[in-house]
Amino acid sequence: MVKLNKIYTRTGDDGTSGLVDGSRVSKASALMTAIGDVDEGNSLIGVAATLAEPEMHTRLTMIQNDLFDLGADIATPDKPVEWTPLRVVEAQIKRLEEEIDAMNAQILPLSSFVLPGGSALAAALHVARAAMRRAERSAVAANAETALNPHALSYINRVSDWLFVAARAANNNGTDDVLWVPGASR
Q1: What are phi and psi of 16, to 5 degrees?
Q2: What are the b/e assignments for 154-177, b being 16+ CB within 10 Å?
Q3: In this predicted structure, what is the pLDDT of residue 135?
Q4: Residue 90: phi, psi to the nearest 5?
Q5: Which pairs with CB-CB distance under 8 Å and at least 24 residues apart come from 26-33?
Q6: H or E segment and range at residue 102
Q7: Helix (H) or strand (E) holding 18
Q8: What's the gap between Cα 86 and its chain centre?
Q9: Could you report the per-residue pLDDT of 14-59, keeping only the tens digit for each?
Q10: Which of 76, 90, 83 is CA-nearest to residue 31?
Q11: Which among 161, 167, 165, 159 is positioned nearest to 67, based on CA atoms?
Q12: d(CA 42, CA 89)
């Protein structure tokens, strides 16, 4: 259980941040960039959740919780430790895939690329999707320096897929999607 009595510690004043095992890394490292980008995506999902109906709100909150698991996973170096580290597992990825398939079964097939927009909820989900795509790129860059859990990388990829399909669902199952019209403003 996490218990935080004091928010500031001054330990990061030197430009470093602590990992789960107690080691410290630069706040500018690829690893910390990935963790920060996941946090930003999580925050934007929170904004979208404020606009969502109860069922989608519940699913978005579950994803937010998973993203904290993901952050802990990324922040735990892949080396022997005296405890069982929190890792993203395949079941979390499968759950997202099942939810994507269920939402997508109700949505019109794509006839063009979708512009981010439509309803306020869809627009918020698209912003979160774009942030999670950046988080994925950051995680891939971090993985090039420090091996990450492969399930963590798959999960982050699937979250952005989930957000895209959820945005289409929020746009009246694709009926109210804003479609790209190539060359429309020439």
Answers
A1: -115, 165
A2: bbbbbbbbbbbbbbbbbbeebeeb
A3: 98
A4: -60, -35
A5: 29/142, 29/145, 30/138, 30/141, 30/142, 30/144, 30/145, 30/146, 31/74, 31/75, 31/142, 31/145, 31/146, 33/138, 33/141, 33/142
A6: helix 90-104
A7: strand 16-18
A8: 17
A9: 787 877 877 788 788 999 999 999 999 999 999 999 999 999 999 9
A10: 76
A11: 159
A12: 18
Ranges of the chain whose pLDDT falls below 50: none
Tokens 């439509």 locate to: 118
Find tokens 């199952």 and name the residue.
173
Q: In the block, which residue shows the tokens 């690829």?
A: 30
User: What does the pLDDT read at residue 36?
Assistant: 97
Q: How far apart are CA 75 and CA 87, in angstroms?
A: 10
pLDDT at 21: 78
Residue 89: which residues within 8 A CB-CB, separation 6 or more? 151
Q: How many CB atoms are closer than 10 A to CB 61?
A: 14
- Name the residue among 64, 168, 53 with its Cα closest to residue 118: 168
63 and 159 in contact (C-beta within 8 Å)? yes
The predicted pLDDT at position 22 comes to: 77
> Which 8-state DSSP code applies to residue 86?
-
